[in-house]
């Protein structure tokens, strides 16, 4: 099968497909009993990320159940700090924990040499997947955007208000700029290596883009993302990039116009008519069902799916959620969603 025959790649190239291709952010994960079994076998979440055989297996699990049009590499955005020498751990129910970087001295403790070698197991997963996925399924590689990864590195984990990250950004701008430059370089190297291992599309997750005021959004969300998109388009022509500037609201327009992304993933709060009129005219849109509606299921979910398909299905579109699927999601609700999207006839 030629690449262009894959519906996911056709939609990203600007075609309108009925029904649209679909996949779900965090489609591999704890809501699936077979994922929980494989994670136990691996020992921990990070050991699973660094075990190519088992990471390939958990990537394939949701494809077997639901027939998604895209597979997304099973890994995490925090393997970059881990590979830079900032040791990451995941504690059950607590999320990620890292020794925080809050000064120039902390930053000097990172070690970018041998960075890609430490990510060899993840690249081996990409390679394994490119021969294991069905012929009509596209393979998505990914990374966190520099700003979002920087928040975890500076806060030392998740945060409600990003006070440490913002304090470094405004209070020690040179140190912050140095960290961001390091992340742009490392993330670009890593994404090109994923493409060379077989990733056909790249998604850049900027989960905390919406936390920044306009000027800082332009400088630390748009500019680094544009640098990554330009590098990918320049050095690996033909590979498409999807951006996910979660919470960007009206700034999504500048994000799409100025980063050069081929697709934009819409969060749950994005008004559909505005997105159709202002974003879908410039690139492919993806999204944006509220993940909690898949927990609720039933008619509320069906109606929301139909509304999204009606409003975004008339242009280049990929059906997805507005954020990642949550662990308490009943797998049969995902089956119902899949059936409804695949049965859509416009
Ligand atoms: O989408 C997929 O199926 C591919 C795999 C993937 C994971 N994380 C697996 C994962 C992807 C693309 C990510 C991206 C990611 N990781 C983001 C950006 C997207 C988003 O959700 O906003 C962020 C911010 C992270 C950082 C991260 N990883 C957090 C905050 C957590 C803890 C929260 C949680 O859900 O437990 C993780 C852990 C994580 N990443 C899990 C999975 C399947 C759960 C780990 C487990 O099995 O216990």
Topology:
Blueprint: H1 7-12, H2 33-42, H3 45-49, H4 52-66, E1 70-72, H5 79-83, E2 89-91, E3 95-97, H6 104-108, H7 115-118, H8 120-132, E4 138-144, H9 146-155, H10 163-171, H11 173-197, E5 201-206, H12 214-235, E6 240-245, H13 251-259, E7 263-265, H14 272-278, E8 284-289, H15 291-296, H16 298-312, E9 317-321, H17 331-342
Parallel strand pairs: 1-4, 4-5, 5-6, 6-7, 7-8, 8-9
Antiparallel strand pairs: 2-3
Helix pairs in contact: 2-4, 4-8, 9-10, 9-11, 10-11, 11-12, 12-13, 16-17
This protein binds coproporphyrinogen III.
Describe the structure.
51% of the residues lie in helices and 12% in strands. It contains 17 helices and nine strands. The strands form two sheets. A seven-stranded parallel β-sheet has the order 1-4-5-6-7-8-9. It has a two-stranded antiparallel sheet with strand order 2-3. Helix 16 runs parallel beside helix 17. It starts with 6 loop residues before the first helix and ends with a helix. Coproporphyrinogen III binds at residues 25-30, 39, 45, 72, 74, 76-78, 90, 95-96, 142, 144, 158, 205, 207, 324.
């Amino acid at each position: 099968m030629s690449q262009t025959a894959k519906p996911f790649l056709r939609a990203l190239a600007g075609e309108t497909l009925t029904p649209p291709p679909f996949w779900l952010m965090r489609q591999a994960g704890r809501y699936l009993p077979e994922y929980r079994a494989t994670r136990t076998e691996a020992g921990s979440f990070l050991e699973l990320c660094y075990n190519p055989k088992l990471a390939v297996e958990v990537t394939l699990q949701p494809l077997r159940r639901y027939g998604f049009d895209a597979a997304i590499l099973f890994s995490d955005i925090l393997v970059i700090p881990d590979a830079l020498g900032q040791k990451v751990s995941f504690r059950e129910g607590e999320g990620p924990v890292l020794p925080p970087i809050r000064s120039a001295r902390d930053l000097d403790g990172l070690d970018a040499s041998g960075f890609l070698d430490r990510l060899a197991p993840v690249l081996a997963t990409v390679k394994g997947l490119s021969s294991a996925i069905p012929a009509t399924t596209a393979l998505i590689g990914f990374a966190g955007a520099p700003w979002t990864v920087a928040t975890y590195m500076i806060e030392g984990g998740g945060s409600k208000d990003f006070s440490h990250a913002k304090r470094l950004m405004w209070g020690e701008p040179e140190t912050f700029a140095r960290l961001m430059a390091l992340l742009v370089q490392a993330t670009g190297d890593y994404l090109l290596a994923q493409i060379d291992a077989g990733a056909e599309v790249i998604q850049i997750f900027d989960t905390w883009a919406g936390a920044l005021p306009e000027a800082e959004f332009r400088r630390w969300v748009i500019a680094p993302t544009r640098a990554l998109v330009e590098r990918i388009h320049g050095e690996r022509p033909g590979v498409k990039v999807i951006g996910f500037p979660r919470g960007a609201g009206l700034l999504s327009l500048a994000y799409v116009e100025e980063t050069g992304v081929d697709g934009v993933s819409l969060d749950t709060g994005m008004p559909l008519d505005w997105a159709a009129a202002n974003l879908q005219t410039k690139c492919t849109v993806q999204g944006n069902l509220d993940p909690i509606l898949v927990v609720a299921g039933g008619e509320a979910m069906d109606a929301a799916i139909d509304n999204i398909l009606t409003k975004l299905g008339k242009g280049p579109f990929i059906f997805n959620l507005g954020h990642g699927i949550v662990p308490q999601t009943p797998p049969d609700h995902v089956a119902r969603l899949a059936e409804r999207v695949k049965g859509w006839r416009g």
